[in-house]
Design brief:
By secondary structure, the protein is an alpha/beta fold. It is built from 15 helices and 12 strands. Helices cover 44% and strands 14% of the residues. The protein starts with a helix and ends with a helix.
Length: 404
């Protein structure tokens, strides 16, 4: 009888820890009551973001709304209605009448506000001709010059979300980018790198007991922007920063993050503010695409693996390398199974296996490749900054702030 009780107790404990482990990665949409907070639109425009600031009087967080998927015309109409609100009624009606023509609608939906995009060129023009945007009606000069540019930027940000959520049906929440952010943070935690990624949560904002918005809530990043750091005439780099950027590059390669540009991370500074010592990254919307060839660059991230299947960095943090080598594919699947589609998980596992193999190959041929935290120094900095390892995160950072 006593023996049976021991067995039963063991089974109960085993089940408890089993289900506890399952719940660790269970997707949770948290409730955040903003009844006593201010929620206002951020004046800073990003290519892919219409960001709100949530201010509770103590600290500020950033919120990006996740909206229900509509058909193309209703998506455009919603963006225009949101931006113009109850103002410029006649202009709004005129613009929407242009979009009854499908060709005009597609022009506006597919315009871009950066690079050589149609909207980017129009924003730099005298703005007299709006037909390139699909807007064929004549608009008042004041509206064209002072209002339409803001509307174009706002609408484009909405359209980025629309096209990123092609897998969602009409009426479903467009949460692909939100889930990419959640998945990035989860992989970072699995690797012990959560300090590199801004804390991010999937939330429902409620006010007076009612849900008013659904989206992603992000902590304010640590440190300062790269551009602010660049203003310091005595700026320099700590070897700790090299290790952090190396770790972030490995993480981003596993997550297929293709948008780790300078504006998408802040840097931690030393007490005197002259030396950059760490990094805190955000905006992981474009991660977890199906890119798998790590011997090629993936937009902002250079090739992570060389042609002879080695890591394209002079050194790697030993702790991170050992962590990766000890993680099994099923652990990675457990982390991602409730937030990503199977095809994305499959691609992630394949990238992960490539990184694993490359670490083994590199350590076999270079006994000095893996180093401890105290071994990052001026010599390791020089090895990477000299450019022999490609356009790494550290190399790009140094180029941008003109340290080399």
């Amino acid at each position: 009888m006593k023996h049976n009780k021991i067995i039963l107790k063991f089974i109960c404990l085993s089940l408890f820890f089993y289900f506890l482990n399952l719940n660790v990665w269970a997707l949770e949409i948290k409730i955040v009551d903003i009844s006593n907070c201010s929620l206002y639109f951020s004046e800073k425009r990003g290519i892919c973001h219409n960001i709100f600031i949530l201010d509770n009087g103590i600290d500020k967080k950033f919120f990006k709304e996740c909206k229900v998927r509509l058909n193309p015309f209703e998506t455009v109409k919603r963006a225009i209605d949101e931006y113009l609100n109850d103002s410029y009624f006649q202009e709004k009606e005129s613009i929407l009448s242009c979009f009854s023509n499908e060709n005009n609608l597609n022009k506006f939906l597919r315009m871009k506000t950066y690079g050589d995009g149609i909207a980017a060129k129009w924003l730099k023009s005298d703005k007299s001709d709006t037909s390139c945007l699909g807007i064929t009606c004549k608009l008042p000069l004041e509206f064209r010059m002072n209002v339409l540019p803001g509307l174009v930027n706002y609408a484009f940000s909405e359209f980025v979300q629309y096209f990123a959520n092609k897998s969602r049906e009409l009426g479903q929440v467009q949460d692909v980018q939100i889930l990419n952010n959640i998945a990035t943070l989860r992989v970072a935690k699995l690797l012990g790198l959560e300090n590199l990624i801004v804390n991010t949560e999937y939330v429902n904002l409620i006010k007076d007991g009612e849900i008013i918005k659904t989206g992603i809530l992000m902590d304010h990043a640590r440190g300062v922007s790269v551009w602010d750091f660049k203003k310091n005439p005595d700026r320099c780099i700590s070897p700790k920063f090299q290790m952090a950027m190396s770790n972030l590059m490995i993480l981003d390669s596993i997550c297929a993050q293709r948008d780790r540009e300078i504006p998408n991370y802040f840097v931690d500074l030393s007490e005197n503010g002259n030396e950059v010592i760490g990094v805190n990254a955000f905006v992981n919307d474009m991660s977890f695409n199906e890119f798998v060839d790590l011997k090629k660059s993936n937009y902002d991230i250079c090739a992570m693996i060389t042609r002879d299947d080695k890591i394209s960095l002079p050194h790697m943090d030993r702790t991170l390398a050992e962590k990766i080598l000890n993680i099994e594919e099923n652990q990675l699947e457990d982390v991602l199974s409730d937030v990503l589609e199977d095809r994305k998980i499959k691609a992630t596992k394949y990238r992960f296996s490539q990184i694993k193999t490359a670490i083994k190959n590199t350590t076999d041929s270079n006994k000095n490749f893996l180093i401890e935290i105290q071994d990052w120094d001026s010599n390791t900095l020089s090895e990477e900054i000299n450019g022999n390892y490609g356009y790494t995160y550290l190399k790009r950072f140094c180029n941008r702030i003109k340290l080399i």
